[in-house]
Amino acid sequence: MTQPTTSLWPAPRATAPVRATVTVPGSKSLTNRYIALAAVASEPSTIMNPLISRDTELMLAAITALGAAVDRSTPGQVTITPLPATASGTKPATASGTDAAAVDCGLAGTVMRFIPPLAAATGRKVRIDGDTQAYARPMDTMITALRGLGVDITPGAASLPFELHSPGGVRGGRVEIDASASSQFISGLLLAGCLFADGLTLVHTGESVPSRPHIDMTVETMRRAGIEVQATGDDTWTVAPGRPHGFTVTVEPDLSNAATFLAAAIVTGGQVCVPHWPAQTTQGGDAFRQLAADFGARVALADGTLCITGLESVAAIDADLSAVGELTPVTAAVAACAAGKSRLHGIGHLRGHETDRLAALSAELTKLGARVTEHADALTIHSPVTHGAAFETYHDHRMVMAAAVLGLCIDAVEVIDVGTVAKTMPEFTQLWAGMLAGER
Ligand SMILES: O=C(O)C1=C[C@@H](OP(=O)(O)O)[C@@H](O)[C@H](O)C1
Ligand SMILES: C=C(OP(=O)(O)O)C(=O)O
Fold first, then answer.
1. How far is CA 261 from CA 27, 90, 211, 232, 362, in A?
2. Residue 352 CA, closest ligand 1 atom number
């Protein structure tokens, strides 16, 4: 499978406090949920301000392979004609339904966890593949759940790639899973649940689930689309069968990606503002406001614009990031620009993200002169980075973003494979340059 292009990027050093306003593109998590929901709807839907990036392109291609149609003729929006309907869900997109459709998940967790249950519901034979690095991401929970729902999955795999087939769709009913490795197992099954003939009752039986806000996001977007979904306690969800109406929705800015730019204000003692910050949101990235305050920055949200103002020094922090693991690389980068000892914990599940992020951060921060201890589910950053080096990014967009923040604090950070940032932000280096040029 194709990987992003290799390239080397000298991360710019801040010569003065950064002062800028940055308009951040749409949220990956919301865009890919809306695409999945548009595919299961009974009528066309329009998504305004969608994120256009590798992960969302892969999601659009995936639903197209399953029989939906995507119209991108109007800039800044996509209109999706859903999967074809049958009484019990969807029908095969080909007349015979015998040819396998092909889905490429790339390295996108949302595609690899949201598409398989949806694909099973179409009744088609579907081959699900991805980047070689995606083969290491946890999939066993989803594969076991689908097998329990009667879906045939070959070979006897516990990870990508595999082929699935459930002629006649999926009956549904009660499923028990252990989603402690990723909230996306819950989100993926819930999003497809309305296509199952009997709907779905999903019970999480394992330890705590990471990234809770992403489950809230799934439930809220489903309800807004008109799907009946009930949450009972912390671990049980019920989805009623039946396809929702079409919808029109505008995607919020990606707050986790916004955190990278806000971090620039913290580490340079400048000010960065992000407009269109939602007053209420299920995006975990909203938690960066609190993290910024913990780092000692001033935080002001007024008239829908969030401004972070960094002060002279950056405070060390102790933060539980279990709910917002995707903020870890950038938070670690800010912490590694601070003088004191920081501890980031509750992040063991990040070993199953794009790369083992604990190992990756530990290795690269150490390379830049920081003293770091890697624990099973935590990182302790004892002392800050001191010098630049070639920074490996491991096909992880957020390692590129972390490197960019570090590059502001120390000379000569050179980012290997900067193009990998296109997973969620193809325009990252341009936006970064614009921010450093003080664009407002
Ligand atoms: O559902 C989603 O959109 C996501 C859920 C989270 O995954 P995990 O629960 O695997 O951490 C998050 O880290 C990821 O970036 C996006
Ligand atoms: C974990 C992440 O992505 P994915 O959706 O691929 O899991 C992330 O973006 O930080």
1. 15, 42, 22, 37, 22
2. 10
